[in-house]
Amino acid sequence: MGLDVGGRHDRPDWPKMGPSLLIASCLILAIRTAKWKPNLDPSLAHQEMDDEIQFATSMAHRVFALLITKYEVMFPQKKEPWYQANDEDVRP
Predict the structure, then answer these.
(1) Which residue has the higher pLDDT, 1 or 76?
(2) Model pTM?
(3) What span, in angstroms and rounded, lies between the C-alpha atoms of 9 and 18?
């Protein structure tokens, strides 16, 4: 059974949004850590920073997920084909 392209849907282009997600995460991280005092204990500083990076990434992901579900058209779009059965291959 063959498939023909029946049309195309506009869907968000996730690979193009990767840099935006990275920038958003970095901005959240920068704002949250802007007033931190320098910490000379490396083990404590790494753990705190890792926690902040994890929080910033999850916050940016949640914002993107909400915006995509409600306002999909404001993001870069790509045309994805949808397929339908080719009737010529099905007939004897």
Answers:
(1) 76
(2) 0.62
(3) 21
